[in-house]
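Support request, priority: normal
Reporter: lab tech (M.K.)
Component: structure prediction queue

Hi team, I submitted a job for Universal stress protein from Pandoraea pnomenusa yesterday, and the status page still shows it as pending. I've pasted the exact input below so you can check whether something in the sequence is tripping the parser. The sequence length should be 158 residues. Please let me know if I need to resubmit or if it's stuck on your end.
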Amino acid sequence: MYERILVAIDGSPTADAAFDYALTMAKARRARLHVLFVVDIPVAYVTDADPFPFIEALRMQGESMRELATKRLNEEGVSGDVEIRDLLPLGGDVAVQINAAADEWQADLIVIGTHGRRGFRRLALGSVAENCARQAHRPVLLIPPTGVESPEVPGNAL
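Reply from support: The job had stalled in the queue. We restarted it manually and it finished. Here are the results:
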């Protein structure tokens, strides 16, 4: 069913869990895995000061992630590759880049971790995973954060 799986990573524990899940799924289905890291350059860092050192640090992080992901693909015997995309300020958002990569690569499935933010934190910080799912033209599998329990509902609330 899924022969081409795209997974988005960003170095967070939640993205690592999504990568682990996608890797396991790809191995079990003998699918190809496309790992995507988007170098997100926030507008706040583009000032009169030279943003080049900051941008280079982000790109170095991407290269480090490429090495780790490639190593994991090889260790697990999963066919795949790792792509790094630059997202310049005012050039769209990460969710748009994830969906564009999935469309260009013709992915059958997008796997992405969600940080599980709720309430004001979600409103203030936004959600790449939610935006990706809303904008996608293909199935999206959201992987929740590990070790986070859902809020309990009091027994008499229903």
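Helices lie at 13-29, 52-76, 94-105, 119-125, 128-135. Residues 4-143 form a domain with the Rossmann fold fold (CATH 3.40.50.620). Let us know if anything else looks off. Ticket resolved.
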